[in-house]
Write a structure and sequence with these properties.
The chain is of the alpha+beta class. It contains 6 helices and 6 strands.
């Protein structure tokens, strides 16, 4: 290996290291892909298997987790120091976990939970159990693509 080969190798490694130190661009791309996956989960009513439909959907049609569109439209991403996270915006954060994992909401500081379902009217319950609907699922091929985006950037292919 000649001297010019070492210089070329050092330059290439140096360029890769420089790109690896500033990965904001590929993280933003991965964030957009994650948002797309999460929204697709909602559009399809669950992946890899379908979710239990909400009472509202059973009675009135539409899509589960997409009543007014506020939750769906709030899904976004943020990049940080070497990381990316996707999910609903701050206004929807208080609902995010129970919608994904499921759980029971109990009336606190009042005798009943009160909510309205078109076709039924006002409902009063002491507690409501919500089944988990993991809108944060990313299929294996998407996770592979996330890694490929990062690899292409660091290697200089992007």
């Amino acid at each position: 290996m000649g001297n010019s080969d070492f210089i070329g190798l050092n330059r290439t490694l140096g360029e890769m290291l420089t790109r690896a130190m500033d990965i904001a661009k590929p993280l933003s791309e991965i964030g957009m892909m994650m948002v797309g996956d999460f929204k697709q989960n909602i559009e399809e009513g669950g992946r890899p298997s379908k979710w239990q439909e909400s009472i509202r959907v059973k009675l009135n049609g539409g899509q589960t987790l997409r009543n007014t569109g506020a939750f769906y439209n709030s899904i976004t991403y943020e990049t940080g120091s070497g990381s990316v996270a996707a999910g609903p915006g701050s206004a929807m954060q208080k609902f995010a976990r129970i919608l994904a994992e499921g759980g029971t909401i109990k009336a606190k500081n009042k005798p009943f939970l009160t909510f309205y379902i078109r076709g039924i009217g006002w409902i009063r319950k002491k507690e409501v159990t919500i089944p988990g609907r993991d809108y944060t699922y990313s299929p294996p091929e998407s996770v592979e693509n996330y890694g490929q985006v990062l690899q292409n950037y660091v290697m200089g292919a992007a």
